Structure formats: structure tokens, C-alpha cells
Q: What sequence folds into this?
């Protein structure tokens, strides 16, 4: 049924007026509170949140504030709900929406973008030029849930239809939350040109994005795919996700030499840098071949010194990526739907939404080798 303001709801999914929501107060202080359930506008749907994965960026936001930007400033004490890797069930349709139906399972990407700036028009909505301009009289329509607008550590969220990805019936809620992570890895490979079939790819750092970068590179036909890191348990998961070789950098005197022993003296065609340290960036420059491409998918906290002369002399390209642009989540879901890799290998723990502080502690301290920790509003 459509209400007078054009919003479609269904008796099958009754919507309460208020919902549980975690709210960020001072740094590191989250309180389980209540908020009104938001209502979708034009080109938006209301999603009943079923599961949310915790991302390292959530931990950053809750502690440091950045990169979240609420009303043009830090997100503290602004009734802000973090969380951005969520999936759920469509509970209401905004005016004019007929692309989805109530009851459909969807997973979401973070950025809707303003849709009107130069970068949005190029599909680079994660680098929207109107980023964070979504309040008061500067509202450009930009939305990045869990960054510039309310996120998913609650029971309902409004999402632009451009951010939705359909979830197949046989995929678990937990796996569906991982599409943003896989989409970020896919976006990195897209920005490198995407033509990686038969090319050598080195992934440095077996965090969630690194592990799924291995999976996506392999699914795109890359070979050999080499994963480097310091933790054997994670390198083992990398093997299951398709790494042809794994290198524990602690047991090698020189990581670059170890890579070149596998792929030859000339070096790798592509490096996806997911470690985010000064050493890792410079090693990437040493292990790449002439004309090769490096994707920087992790961000160091502080400025780093980079071997620029080596880069310039060898015609090395470096790409920064931000998030999951150019609809990469849809391509990642394409692989996940076809079971080309099992993203759920990186999901390690599930907690109830009410236990969010415990879940965050597991993710932060990597308790019991936690990789991706998920909270579920619907258990
Ligand atoms: Zn994330
Ligand atoms: Zn834009």
C-alpha cells in the first residue's frame, strides 16, 4: 500500500515508529539508545538491517572520529550511528521506487554520492566532490552511510537504490555483508585496468581487503597470485581463496627477493598494497616490473618517505583507491553468486546487535584470530 506521501509499505513487514540504535557519544563511547525509524525519500528504500560486519574503519571512526564527517565536523555527540557494511530486507519503498520489492534481501555499498559532480558522473562516487555536503543549506544530496549519515548499527536504515545489491537466496546474511570488502578489492583491480588474466599479482597484507583481493584477482584469471604477510593462519586462508604462493615475510630475509624467486627477476605486473606501512609501499616499488601498476588499498596513519626516483625511472604507476566505486560491488557479487570464491572464509565471529561492544573488542584485539566480526539484529 502507498501512503499519501508516496511511501509503499506492506502488512508483511510492519514498521515500528522507533528502533534500537547505537549512538556515538565521546570517543570510544557507544550507547544503545532509541531513534525514530527513518523514512525513505525519492529513489530510496528503507532496509531492515539483518547483519552488519565490523570494519577497521569503524574502529577508527569510533576512536578518532575521522574519516567520518557529520555536519561538516567530527562525529562525536551528534546522535550519529556508525556501521557501514550491512545487509538486510527491504521494508518500505520511497515514492516512485519500482526497482525493488518489499521483502527482498539486499546488501548495500556505502556511497550514494551526490550524483551531480564530475566524479559522480564518472562513476567515481566514492570520491564525490561534494563529499560530506549533506546537511542544512549545503545539502548536495551526498550520502555515505556510517560516514556522513547514519549507518547500520541499528535496526533500520534508509538507502539510495543505487547502493543496493540483490542477495541470492542461498547466501547467508554473514557472507552478504562482505560484498563491500570484496567490492573494494574489485575496485582496486578495476582502477589498475582490470586486465589481469595471465598477469602476476602480488597482494601485500592479509587483512580482509587483501584476502579478498587474492580471491578477486584469481577469479579474474591472474596468475601467479602471491600473498605476503606475517600471520600463518591468515596466509592459509589466502591459499584457500586462491593464492598460488604465500610468503611469511618474517621467515624471509628479503621479501622482494622471495617474490622474484617465484616470478622472475623482472618483477610483478601488479601489486595490491594492503599493509599500509612505509616499508610495504617501498617494497612494492622494488618488486613491481617496469611499467607495472601498484594499487594503494591501505592508508598509513602518517606521511611516508617513498622511493620516488625508482618509481619515475621505471615508469611505475601508483593508484590510490577510496572505497568501492564504479559499481564494483555488483561485479564482486557476480563472483560470489557464482561461488567463484568463498568470501565467508574471512568471517570468523557473530554476535547479537546488543553485544556490539564485545564484537568491537573482538575485532580490535583480534581475539581468537578474529578477522571479520558480524553483529546481527535478527539472530
Ligand atoms: Zn569498511
Ligand atoms: Zn558527487
A:
Amino acid at each position: 500500500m502507498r501512503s499519501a506521501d508516496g511511501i509503499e509499505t506492506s502488512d508483511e513487514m510492519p514498521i515500528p515508529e522507533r528502533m534500537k540504535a547505537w549512538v556515538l557519544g565521546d570517543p570510544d563511547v557507544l550507547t544503545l539508545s532509541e531513534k525514530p525509524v527513518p523514512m525513505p525519500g525519492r529513489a530510496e528504500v528503507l532496509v531492515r538491517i539483518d547483519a552488519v560486519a565490523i570494519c577497521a574503519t569503524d574502529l577508527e571512526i569510533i576512536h578518532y572520529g575521522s574519516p567520518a564527517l557529520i555536519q561538516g565536523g567530527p562525529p562525536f555527540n551528534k546522535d550519529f550511528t556508525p556501521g557501514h557494511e550491512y545487509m538486510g530486507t527491504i521494508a518500505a519503498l520511497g515514492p516512485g521506487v519500482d526497482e525493488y520489492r518489499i521483502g527482498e534481501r539486499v546488501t548495500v555499498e556505502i556511497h550514494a554520492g551526490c550524483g551531480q559532480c564530475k566524479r559522480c558522473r564518472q562513476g567515481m562516487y566514492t570520491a564525490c566532490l561534494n563529499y560530506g555536503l549533506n546537511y542544512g543549506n549545503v545539502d548536495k544530496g551526498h550520502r555515505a552511510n556510517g560516514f556522513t549519515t547514519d549507518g547500520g548499527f541499528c535496526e533500520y536504515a534508509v538507502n539510495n537504490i543505487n547502493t543496493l545489491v540483490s542477495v541470492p537466496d542461498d547466501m547467508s546474511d554473514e557472507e552478504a555483508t562482505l560484498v563491500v570488502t570484496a567490492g573494494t578489492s574489485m575496485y582496486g583491480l578495476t582502477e589498475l585496468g582490470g586486465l589481469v588474466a595471465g598477469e602476476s599479482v602480488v597482494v601485500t597484507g592479509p587483512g580482509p581487503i587483501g584476502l579478498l583481493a587474492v580471491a578477486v584477482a584469481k577469479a579474474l584469471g591472474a596468475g601467479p597470485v602471491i600473498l605476503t604477510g606475517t600471520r600463518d593462519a591468515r596466509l592459509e586462508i589466502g591459499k584457500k581463496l586462491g593464492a598460488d604462493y604465500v610468503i611469511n615475510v618474517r621467515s624471509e630475509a628479503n621479501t622482494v627477493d622471495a617474490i622474484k624467486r617465484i616470478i622472475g627477476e623482472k618483477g610483478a605486473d601488479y601489486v595490491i598494497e594492503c599493509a599500509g606501512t612505509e616499508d610495504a609501499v617501498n617494497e612494492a616499488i622494488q618488486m613491481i616490473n617496469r611499467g607495472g601498476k601498484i594499487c594503494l588499498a591501505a592508508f598509513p596513519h602518517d606521511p611516508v618517505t617513498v622511493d620516488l626516483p625508482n618509481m619515475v625511472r621505471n615508469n611505475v604507476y601508483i593508484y590510490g583507491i577510496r572505497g568501492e566505486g564504479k559499481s564494483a560491488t555488483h561485479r564482486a557479487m557476480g563472483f560470489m553468486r557464482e561461488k567463484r570464491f568463498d568470501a565467508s572464509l574471512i568471517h570468523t565471529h557473530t554476535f547479537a546487535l546488543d553485544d556490539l561492544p564485545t564484537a568491537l573488542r573482538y575485532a580490535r584485539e583480534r581475539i581468537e584470530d578474529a578477522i571479520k566480526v558480524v553483529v546481527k539484529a535478527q539472530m
Summary: The chain has a mean pLDDT of 96. The chain has eleven helices and 15 strands. The domain at 18-110+145-167+342-376 is CATH 3.90.180.10 (Quinone Oxidoreductase; Chain A, domain 1).
